[in-house]
Amino acid sequence: MRCSGLWQALKLSLLLLVFLLIPALSRGAEVILKGEVTAGGAPLYLSQLATVVGSPEEVKLLKQIPILNHLPLCSERTISKREIASKIALYLERNGLTVGDIEVKGPNRVVVKTPCSKVGGDSLSELIRSYIKENYPDFTVLYVPRITVQVPYSHYDQELRLVSIGNGYARFIYQVLVNGKVVKKVWIPVRIDRLEKVVVAAVLIPKGTKITPTMVKLASVPSRKAYNAFHSVKEVVGSIARTDILSGKIIRPTMLKPNFLVKRNMPVKVVYNSGPIHIELLGVALDNGVKGHIIRVKNISTGKVLRCRVVGEGLVEFLSE
């Protein structure tokens, strides 16, 4: 039995040696290997890896020889010329087939690839962001996990479906379909936030500048950034910039100081109007006040404390009881 096994191995080695080393001018079949091929999967036959030249019978026989029985999808495999010649010799020997001289020619190795498409990635992230922007303009996307899916197909369709939205998250289902059949399905949690209108600097506002309406505007920002911000331009116009405020920066109370038209202990003119009656007198402000604020003013003549509204610089209006 041992001698028989050695003889079989010797026969196969001799046959393989003939395939690889026979002179190019000898007659017989030729197997001309390709450098690189793309296969749809296993099994993989010699006809897919090489061009076979010979008699019709030889060509038909050799083309159907299986070379690979297993080839994972989305993979790459390299097969040497010697390995292919060995597969041919083994197939013929096992099936008791006789073929004339065979020459295996071409590159020393064949690279076999299976179709594979990478889908998702940046294009999927943009698709999700666009979906939220178009269908939910009051929300903004904070984070989309990067999802990349490999599918062993060249032609496919994609489907994105929103399942739920709220509580800081939107949940999507992303599907890859081939001929209407789902081949990949992924759940995607997306972090979102509601947008709020806040006051931002429209231009650079230097420190000490009195803010005018043209210097500020409303802009939409995520609610987590809108904390302690102003929501009306009127709230900041007339205030003084406590520091330099860059264009686009959200304006917060700590960046401003009031533009007091009346300051404490400052002499002011007090006016009173009621129909045809117009009275003016002098007073001393007991509080700081911006335009529209109600402050206390002491009448210099009588010492009485009056309730007054600030109407201008150093000017207040007496409010009757």
TrEMBL record:
Q: Which GO terms describe its biological process?
A: bacterial-type flagellum assembly
Name the chain's protein: Flagella basal body P-ring formation protein FlgA
**Keyword list, A-Z:** Cell projection, Cilium, Flagellum, Periplasm, Signal
Where does it live in the cell? Periplasm
Cross-referenced InterPro entries, in alphabetical order? AFP_Neu5c_C_sf, Flagellar_FlgA, SAF, SAF_FlgA
What species was this sequence derived from?
Answer: Thermovibrio ammonificans (strain DSM 15698 / JCM 12110 / HB-1)
Indicate yes or no for the key word Signal: yes
Query: Where in the numbering of this chain does the SAF domain appear?
Result: 196-257
GO terms for cellular component: periplasmic space
Q: Does the keyword Cell membrane apply?
A: no
Main location class? periplasm
Q: Which residues belong to the signal peptide in this entry?
A: none
